[in-house]
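Lab notebook, bench 4. The sequencing result for the construct came back, and we need a structural model before the next group meeting so we can plan mutations. Quick request posted to the team channel:

Model the 3D structure of this chain.
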Amino acid sequence: MSKNCFKFSLAVLLLIITFIYSMTSGISDISVVMTLKSLFSKVDDNTYTIINKIRFPRVFLAVIAGAGLSASGCVFQGILRNPLADPFTLGISGGAAFGASVGFVLGMASVSWIFLPLFAFTGAMMSICLVYSLNVKKEFDSNGMILSGVVASYIFSSAVLLIFAILSSDQLYSAFMWLMGNLSSFDERLLPVITAVIVAGIIILCLFGNVINIITLGHEKASSLGVNTTKTVKYIFLLSSLMTALIVSCCGVIGFVGLMIPHITRKFVGNDHRVLIPMSVLAGAIFLPLCDALSRILFAPVEIPIGVITSIVGGIFFMVLLLKPSGKITL
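Done. Here's the predicted structure in token form:
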């Protein structure tokens, strides 16, 4: 227990340091002292605008998005007992991207800020319904779910590319940047909504920690212990889909976070989801702002989409994992 408390305290400290570092990083170098002053009191107008109007909302969104994607990936890997399960491989991100793209083309964002998340959630639900329908007679076979999710992801990704193909040239660049993951041009009116939903969703998923531990023992044993696995899995899928849809509607598709972060966290805290879920949340909240800072400074003043950074890091991570002597990716 004391070890876990120390690990949580260390993770919170790293999160604070990462948040401040990300606030200071960018084309305009601003010292830590000036950054902190800008947060709590008004300094010169230029610094105040950069810190409070541009960087703070962006870094805060990166924290929330990283936490939400990591939590979703962690519970998906647990309930499906498959280390390759995450919102992307299950087709949820692809479906949400399709829904948001339809809303984007129809100009729903200009009608009301709430329409884009609704379209994204509808797309995520379409993807989940497709994945479920392909596995309804297999009692949530994990390999079947992953395979169905990959198929759904390809279908919806192709549909998104088709939509982008008919966009005008002035719309195409911004749409393409959004698709690859972009934190620079989100609607700030979504920030309170996404924060409330993601925080509430994380709390609920953490409360399901012990139930997920039981589900990992197998559906038959979980049922014998009084856990309704079918209903629990549906609730978790619905909640995680809502969280993913909100993140996609703000940030676009950011891959590998929900897949990689739970793997790394599991090495430090083990497989107990009562500890693993909140620790994955903190790890994701640390990882994504670091990727965002890297995307801003790597080829400054040109900004790289954050989804490119996470995909490169995630790809290298799994290559190293596969090159280990065991050659296996396990929970």
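The chain has one domain: 63-322.
Will bring this to the meeting.
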